[in-house]
Structure formats: structure tokens, C-alpha cells
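go over this record:
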Amino acid sequence: MPIVSLTSHLDDRASRLSCFLDHAFPRLDDVAAEALAQMPRTLRAAPDQGFHVAWTTIGTAIDHRLRLAFTPRALPGASREPAVSCNPITTAIQLAAASAAHHAARAGEPGCRDDANARQAARQWERVAAVGQALAPRLGQMAARTSPHLNPHLALPDPDETELCRLCYAAAWFDELAHRPGEEHKILSFIGANNFNNLDEVLAVVPRAAVEDMVMLVRVAARSDLAGLRTRASPAAVTTGPLFAGSVDVGGADGDLIIAGTLIDIKTTMHPARHVPAGIRQLLGYLLIDYTDQHSLTGIGIYLARQGELLAWKLRELLPRLGATTPLDILRNCCMETLQRH
């Protein structure tokens, strides 16, 4: 089943969740403005503007790379409780395999008017699924060899860091398929229609500029407060792709990672002023749909990858600053009633 991003609900300021957030936390914009005012104005990882690369894909890819820096459970295929967390790469592989089976079955139906197109679509989706099924163990082998979650410097030495970033960029294509199935034509036209014979042929066309940018972002992270947080949290205290009791009420939305009780969202942007307020709203949305306090969250944070800045707040201090006048458990119950109202 596809994973719907929580931002699709929050971007609609008339949605039930958006309206609830505005009412529950009336001073959210003030908190965001205070955080932005304290940030340095310089970029520590400025992208090379001379190359045309998919910046959104880089953001997704660096998200996966940094997850691996915290725990091997970020790997596709790693054991996890389905109600607690998910892996979008695994989800995407399953979606591709299901699409291949669907089109193959349609092609075999008596009287199918577009049999040739259905067979072609089945072959293309089979190719996408095969690449994903090869990518998952390759990531596992790379992690087993280099142990990125144990590396004391966060960033691996080259060429290992470059290779891991390349794999994570390929993983980002599958993440995008899981989160934005309506744009499935992108991965289908790239992997499915290009007659790649194996994973190595796909990895060979990952943009070099994108990989170099990712390596720079990882090295910035190694000198940031995120690295400090990493030294204080064991891999067992990290959850990647967390799901919440209310995820089903918003299309299955998943977070980035929880580190020792702090829910972190990773943003790879050159313009924090555009994304920090939305990022705080997103984190508060996850906080509210954790109806049962399943993850025992004690804080939220935004890691700005290009600035190397970690903005973090303890809930006991943040909620009053946001203007919340109702205890969190009651807010969660009210949010649940709002989202489940028919």
C-alpha cells in the first residue's frame, strides 16, 4: 500500500488536521521565527548550481543515508514491527511487483483490447521490481562491510562513502515511488523503459554531481550537533520510518526517525525560512497522531542538512511556547476524534 505524506494534509490549510493544529498551537509561527533568527546565514553545503539534478531526490537520498548512520534497522528487509515503523524501499518493491502482476493478469484476460500495452507494462514493472530486489541486498552488504552506524566519524572514508551515497540515491527513487505513486511514471519511464539489464547499469547513471553533493552533506553532518546526538544514542534507541496510531487516519504517514525520544525531520534546503515553519507543523502533526504515546516522544527537531544545524525542542518547554493550553494527551484524543469524524 502506498504511503501518503503528512504534508499533503498540512499543505491544505482547510484540512481537518491543519485547522486543528492552528487552533491547538496558535503561536507556532512565533516559535519558528525565533528559531530562524538564531540561525547563521551561511550555507555549509552549497550545491553546485551549474548542474541540473533532482534536488528533491537528493533530499530523500540524504535522509536514507543519515538513517543508516544511526541504525542498521534502516535497511530494507530489516526486521521491524509493522505497526511501529515502515521501510518505503520495501513498500516500493512490493508496489512494483504488484503492478507487474496486475498488468500481466490483465494481458491474459479474454478480449483484452490493449494486450500489447499491458504486456509491455508488466515487463517494465518486472524490471523495476528486479532492480529494487537487487538494491536491497546490495545496501545490506555495503552496511555489513562498512558498519556506517558504528563509524565514529559518521562519514565513511572514500570510496566507501561515495558508493553508499550512490546506493542511497537509487534507493530514493524507490522511496519516491512509495510516497508518490501518482508519479509512478517517473521511475517506470527511467528504469522500466530503458532496458537496464541489472542494478549496476542503473547505478552507473546516477548523476555524479548528485553523489558529490551527498558526500558533502554527510561530511557536514559529521561536524554538526546531529553527530553529537548520534554519540549519545545507541542504535537500539533509534526508530526509522516511524508509524503512529493515527497514521491510518492520514493515509499511512511515516516520519523520518526517532532518536532517544526525539522525533527528527531532515530538511535539505537552501531556504530554511520557507521550510522551518512547515517542518514544525509536520512534526507537531506526527506528535498529535501518536494517539497512544506509543513512541514516548519527549522532543522534536529539524536537521537542516545544508546548514548543518539541528533545531531541537523539548516538549515540556515547547508546548507552552506554542500557546497550547490543553494537556497533550487530551489534544491527542481531540485530534483523533476530529480526524475520525465521518
Q: What stands out?
A: The chain has 14 helices and five strands.
